[in-house]
Amino acid sequence: MTDPGLSCEFLGLNLPNPLVLASGILGTSASLLERAAREGAGAVTTKSCGPEPRAGHPNPVALAWDAGVINAVGLTNPGAQEEVPLLWAAKARLAGLGVPVFASIFAPTTEQFGEVARIIAEAEPDLIEVNISCPNVASEFGTPFSAAAASAAAVTRVVRRAVRLPISIKLAPNVANIGQIAKAAAEEGADAITAINTMPAMLIDAAAGKPVLHNRSGGLSGPALKPIALRCVYEIAQAVSLPIIGTGGVSTGIDAAEMLMAGASLVGVGSAVWQDGPAAFARIGAELLAFMQRAGYGTVKDLRGRAIAW
Asked: Which CATH superfamily is domain 8-309 in?
């Protein structure tokens, strides 16, 4: 969507609308990122990449169910070195569209987060999203860095020293005080917060008597996650003054409005694209604009934090 009412500013970037392709959805090639942008995404995020290539988990790795999607893909990626040319290609394809490219990274150790960030920075993405919260590789990497303020701060500090590009720290919902963790990241130099990642969950096939996913548990996303995401964004917005990319369960324009009202500056869209394809962006954008016009909101900024001020 390119209506002036939807245009917004984020960390000095001018976006055509606040809808962001979330990491892990279509972010595996320059052509797919371009398609998302042409279909109405205001910004696009690559799939998370790490220090080394990963094949991910064996199938089955994803399942749509009544209230959303559960997945345990396992951070499949080609490694940071191979991700750099993908980012350059994506930036070239999107250069004329006014749609920024965000690069998502992960690592198994604090120090390696800095190493991956330095490699990815060579491609000059508009933002590095630091994924410290993926829930479906804990058995391999241990407790996610997003689980505590100290570990979140440590990763942020290392990445901040490694690069000058804007960084957003991606947090998890299953913590005692997400505002405190966001504040710790802010104090170590984060420019933004992405909230939230998926929620650890499980589905069991009663007929087979075993978990559905090969990995047993996975990350829950889709409509069931939205109330949790709204609460997290709301608490983060009251704890820090950083812009927030509110992500989790957004599938309609009203959902997007609610996320902005909770305090988000941008709105991540993931499972809706998994379900409906990239056309979800145009639909959600049109629904958001229609709501704004009905309710008398002139700009996206007018929506931001409305629920906090209530």
From this structure: Aldolase class I (3.20.20.70)
Average pLDDT over residues 36-58: 90
Mean predicted confidence (pLDDT) in 130-140: 66
Could you report the per-residue pLDDT of 239-295, keeping only the tens digit for each?
Answer: 999 999 999 999 999 999 999 999 999 999 999 998 899 999 999 999 999 999 999
Rg (CA), the chain: 18
- Give the pairing of strands 43-45 and 62-65: unpaired
Which structure tokens are listed for 74?
A: 């396992």
Do residues 272 and 278 make contact, with C-beta atoms less than 8 angstroms apart? no
Residues 145 and 56: their CA atoms lie apart, in Å, by: 20
Helix axes 253-261, 279-295, angle to 10 degrees: 60
The one catalytic residue among 8, 49, 134, 232:
134
Measured torsion, CA atoms of residues 212, 213, 219, 220, in degrees rounded to the nearest 10? -20
∠ CA 196-27-223, nearest 5°, is 40
Greater pLDDT, 2 or 232: 232
> Quick one: DSSP state of residue 49?
B
> Which two three-digit tokens encode residue 78?
């080609």
Q: What is the dihedral of CA 273, 277, 281, 283, to 10 degrees?
A: -120
Residue type, 26: L
Q: Is the pLDDT of residue 92 over 60?
A: yes
Q: Is the pLDDT of residue 135 over 70?
A: no
Chain centroid to CA 159: 18
Helices (H) and strands (E) in the chain, counts: 12, 16
8 is catalytic: no
